[in-house]
Design goal:
This protein is of the alpha+beta class and 412 residues long. It has 16 helices and 13 strands. The longest helix has 22 residues.
Amino acid sequence: MNNKYIFHIDFDSYFVSAIRTIKPHLKNKPVAIARSEKHSVAVSISYELKSLGAKTGSKVYEILAIEPKTIIEKPYFRLYQYLSNKIFKFLKANFASKIEVGSIDECYIIPKIDLENKEKAINYARNIQKTILNKFDIPITIGISVNKFYAKMTTNISKPFGIGYTDKENYKDNFFDLDIEKFHGIGSKIANKLRQINILTIGDLAKKEKNDFELLQVFKTTAYKYLDSLDINKNVDFNLEPEQNKGMGNEITFEFQYDEIEILDKVKNIAFNLSQRLKKDFLIAQNISLVARNYDKKWKAYNKNISPTDDANEIYKHSKKLIDKNVALNNIKGIGIRVSKLVDKDSIYEYHSLLDNPKQINNQNEKIESIIEQVNRKTKSTNVFRLSELNKKEKLKFNHEVDLITHSIFKK
């Protein structure tokens, strides 16, 4: 199968939508996800509030000034993680030949079937959208394009609960007149620097050369990546055999000033995303680093060796300990987690089983192999084998079938 489309799927106002699945009386009402204190920051708001001018990241008191009837709901991360896992698994089983989980509320997929034209692609997306809403009560927006960057950008202009389509015929019409800050991967600070050199729209950026002096002053050595992303003829490659990572991580820089509880909520999200990536590659981490960015824009890392894990709760627990010991949360501008000393999930279990008593284990192994051989000989089959062999077979099958799309270079 050689499908020419990539779908970007984004859960609309996900934290609000998830709460509404267990509190349906909140539907069609102004809802903000935040702690109840007036100076807390809203991590998600409903479209009823967005239509009035409220924004995610606003303080609770600012939102209440816009809409006094706003209902404040506390974050419920266990629900968010559980529900997104269910949706991702459902998408993989029913609609995707390949899937990449981008974050707790978004993913990229390559459809299970060949979609020859725009009409079939849009109909397929409508089916996904309708099915997810009926089964999980979560509204989603889908962006369809020929690469990840334009699929993501298409989602951004199609919200809420929309389906957008971008191809070589319409990509300039869809995006080149938009404000430069609408470029996925460009935040307000970079956007302001670009405006100072008269790059006001995405189209203005597209006209620049990769070696443009002013552009290099803003982006340094990464200028070409931003220009390449605007080239719709550049497609994303899909690796059928993901590399054995020496390490992986995720960091975020804060656009707003958050309090301690809100920062820890973000750490939980990062831990969840890392756990998903580890499980996807059948890897386990044996070292964890907590990185924090101070107001001088310098990152500092604190690390420790840990018992092998791919579990989100364990990753968060160790990160929290490193924070408590080393970081003043009221004095940082960004935070992240990195995991390293990654090993194959099967090999780490085999390794630990050999620690106890090597001689005894060897004797046990010989007996087990003898029993397996006798059973297979009598049944004239090879249907009996070790669990570790099954795990390895499943790993190869998983890597072949799931094959998560290569991670994009653009992260916001």
